[in-house]
# Entry
Amino acid sequence: MSTQKLPAQQEDFPGWYNEVVKRAELAEHGPAKGSMIIKPHGYGIWELMQRALDDRFKATGHENVYFPLLIPMSLLEREADHVEGFAPQVAVVTHGGGEKLEEPLAIRPTSEAIIWNTYKRWVQSYRDLPLLYNQWVNVLRWEMRTRLFLRTSEFLWQEGHTAHATADDAMRETLQMLEVYREVAEDVLAIPVFTGRKSPGERFPGAVETYCIEGLMRDAKALQCGTSHFLGQNFGKAYDVTFLNADGDQEHAWGTSWGFSARMVGATIMAHGDDAGLRLPPAAAPIQVVIVPIHRNDEERSTVAAVAEKLRADIAAAGIRVRLDDRDQHRPGYKFAEWELKGVPLRIELGPRDVAADRAVIASRLGGDKEEIHLGALVAGLSDRLTAMQRQMFADALAYRDANTHQAGSFDELAAGVEEQGGFWIGPWCGDASCEAEVATKTKATIRFLPIEPKDPGAACIHCGKPGIDVATWARAY
Amino acid sequence: MSTQKLPAQQEDFPGWYNEVVKRAELAEHGPAKGSMIIKPHGYGIWELMQRALDDRFKATGHENVYFPLLIPMSLLEREADHVEGFAPQVAVVTHGGGEKLEEPLAIRPTSEAIIWNTYKRWVQSYRDLPLLYNQWVNVLRWEMRTRLFLRTSEFLWQEGHTAHATADDAMRETLQMLEVYREVAEDVLAIPVFTGRKSPGERFPGAVETYCIEGLMRDAKALQCGTSHFLGQNFGKAYDVTFLNADGDQEHAWGTSWGFSARMVGATIMAHGDDAGLRLPPAAAPIQVVIVPIHRNDEERSTVAAVAEKLRADIAAAGIRVRLDDRDQHRPGYKFAEWELKGVPLRIELGPRDVAADRAVIASRLGGDKEEIHLGALVAGLSDRLTAMQRQMFADALAYRDANTHQAGSFDELAAGVEEQGGFWIGPWCGDASCEAEVATKTKATIRFLPIEPKDPGAACIHCGKPGIDVATWARAY
# Structure
């Protein structure tokens, strides 16, 4: 670990982010352009998100499947908007087993094409519906300007793909999965998010509607945290997925798809970190508690080591993720700084005088005074302490988000606001794509979301003055 | 589900396998050559294997990481044996983002190259060692002759990659992970396996020694079930991974790698299935218990439905994976056959007379009489019943394996044995690669493994008559 100070968040947020990712050993660039190596501490955060999502997918009746990485180019091309959206970003395999392929294969940028092409065979009758499937996979979308976790060519995600007998069923599914995303973002990652609907220009290529959860980072920039798409019958028609409905008529199946990716590791870093480094909400912390033994000589060392190891075992037995840092080569102060940098929620310090007094010192990553606690009471209280930290981190992030969410009284206020303060700016919008594009050009802010149900603002568009037809929330975003 | 009978295992094992995979809805071919779609029931089996392995990896101190899918060709070429072994099977990306790439990228056939190229940066001192990392990923090795689960171009696996300060440490790790594989194969999949060492000709390209677990399928053919490689300093040297040892000298790191793949879903099918379909050991069964309600009219239907749903909830609350099959469109007999085909260990039948008598009927996938059980006692006894089935399936498979493992008294006996009976044939071997190749040509059997420690057979080679230097176990294999 470098002992140099991190760049201050306030002064150089991108520099701070890059240094935290590097020094907290979360990830690094891979040898091929745009590729990323996820290190154990970063991957551990992702595993906790995966588990939290996967449990909820299964509780809502979904099953996991696996579709191939490589998709014949001709298959990708069936849904017109879809191919137009993704073709420019596709990586293409032209050779395999030492020979040139007859047809080039795309590495999946997303899997609607190959999945709907398969659903065609799986669906005959309304009794075969719904299909409620998800897959945990890598996908690839060529990127030149990359940023670890946030934007890389290859990334890890889950993609859910469901087929339904009615539009209502598909819409209910779309919004249910949006709610699952909101819950994981807020309850596990402690990131407050707005749920909303994308403007037509920001829709997923091939979707009828795209819904999203949208969070705010510590630099007051927005980040899209997950999307859930109502596909209508677009893919049903493009891939000829028909079924016999209960009335005996042939119909095209209705679809949804929804994705949540490892970019959320980046979101967790940027939503909670401070100038000392990462701060992990306990539910997303691969290590929730670290024990640092303190000693000045071999005798003290062995006295403390035995108690520390017993404490570690007791904490682990209580179902808490704990690490005993008994490395010889580093002094306690160095270890304190390292675990702060890595965002571990609680640190327990244990020295010879603590052992003699049957107590330990506990320090929170959220700051505040260190506390002395009797060893007999320590383990039993840890779970409550972690729960309280989780709540506190959400409350802090929510207060920050609220303080940075504004009603824009005029376009000038919006333009000055996103430039000077950042955050979300809400105002009436005319619904016109060209107006949206003009605002984006002038302010570098985009419409992050509209309300889930369109809402008459009862006022003129903040930019063009035409009648408002919806309420837009603008921000500069990652 | 087709109601046609499966091909009989004894008469057409490959046909039986293909039909079981298809009708039990485990997997199907994807659109690109050599690709596979894993369906929910097949993926569910894989998920249980993943969890069993991952828990054991973590319990033995390993952490998960993620290295990129795409590897610059030049990186692959550093370890001479390694590239020679894998280059012919590599799929190559030549275009990305609409442009021709400066350097073609290989889709990983395995990740030693990219990982050791990175370890170079992660290792400076003996204090940085060991590195104990694993990843769950897809890999691609071009295949023309594919078979679902057993041999496909893209496949899912885990690959562990560790680096150590001494040869002893690396060898201990290699054998520890072999033992983890044995435990999961035997305790979770109920597949008895031999542990052994590969002959030099069967070694992983770039390894000093390859160890394996080897199982026997119901057609008396062997299947390699997992491998653990001692890499010596080969990759340390090829990728220049050096460290300062405790004496202050520069040394190359010692390595291991080990892999277990979704082909083990195929192994589970072939080790346990019978003429009625799949038989899943409870620990690897996505559905352990299925409840089939029986009724002839709407009144009976609603009486039975309430009790069935309560039973389902109680069984689920006991931590058992249960499905209530309340589909209207199928009769009970059809459902019985379907769940037998899908290998569900226990079936509970519940009709109006059962409900009136406060009992249910329980049927085991292993056969035997159906049992009537009082509803009050049913849930409490399920776990023991599943444990007993798990043991029974292992015992049956072990008896089969033992009955098909023979000492070969002569080459003629070996040749006739593998042709007429199949199974494992054990005999002294001279250690000569050309002799091994001749036996393989004559018998289509290969050396599946040698003892973990070389063992003087005290007798002449069964084939060439030269002095025996080791004990080889031969079989025809997948």
Observations:
- DSSP finds 14 helices and 23 strands in chain B.
